[in-house]
Give the backbone structure.
Amino acid sequence: MSDFHRDKCLYAMRKLNDKIKDKVVGTIYHYTKAEKFKEIIKTREIWMTNALFVNDTTELRASLEGDIFKDIQFKNPEFSVFQNTQKKLESKDVEDYYLASFSKDNNSLYQFRSYGDYCIGFDAKKLKKNRFNLFKCVYKQRDIKNWIVKKDSLAEWQDDCFNNEKGQSYKRTAFLIVKSARQAKLKSEHYELEKEIRLLVASNSSWDSGLGFSYGPEMFCEQPAIYFRKHNFSDVPYVKFFIPKKPKTRKELEKLVKNKSQIETKNIIRNMEMGQEKELLPISTVKIGPMQNQEEALITTKTFLHEHGYDKVEVTSSDIPYRGF
């Protein structure tokens, strides 16, 4: 067995992550209401909702229905967990995942009516941050099956640095991206019109990795802090995507949380986030949906963006002939 080399394993894990993640480029669009639009601009944050609290009641669990991998001979033993997984959908399958939804479509009447009057265009390449991943949704089980089989065949899984017990833990960490993707990419076919691309991140409420073993605080120091917002029936957990002006290195983060308890670590990360200066979000366009007083909304939006530093954002109005009331 080869010796363990932490830096080599980190490099190999990152190479795997890059191969696993979907390549999403260009502009992707987020539909939202006027008040939420203003909060995004003012705070420079995208709030990502816990997957148990979104509209789709099968969110992140559609791929667990049926045994679609039963005839596949996987090359990597980690992938065997995908077999014989037919089971009742449970909350624990998704409770640590947080997401924000985007679309390829920037002028969808269906989405304006469902989600709000503002369509914000983001540069997909810049919506990238450690642990935050973009996934292109598919709506057929055969499509997610083919995607998983291709990822199992990646040569990067066979890197020599994984050939020992500690190295295996890094390989399993990379595999968590595949496991997340299996759930994140497949949506109910009833939502196919949305052409969804989603931003997904995991933030565990405990040190349990989900793979039957636990890590210390150093492994979890880069997880986003969990917050709560008011809703009609309950507080809803969410995390924040933002771009820090002076991000701390992993070594700095590890030093901050070294030998800390779970609660201490979470408080350190939360306080750090709350005091962090943030860059502008990578917003390139805003489209005002069909509504009454659309021209006035256009002028107000341009002024509002300018006052908050978004001078180069193109603001337009939808040409959909719908009164919106």
User: Anything to note?
Assistant: The CA atoms of residues 25 and 125 lie 6 Å apart. Strands lie at 27-32, 46-50, 97-103, 118-123, 133-136, 196-202, 227-229, 236-241, 283-288, 314-317.
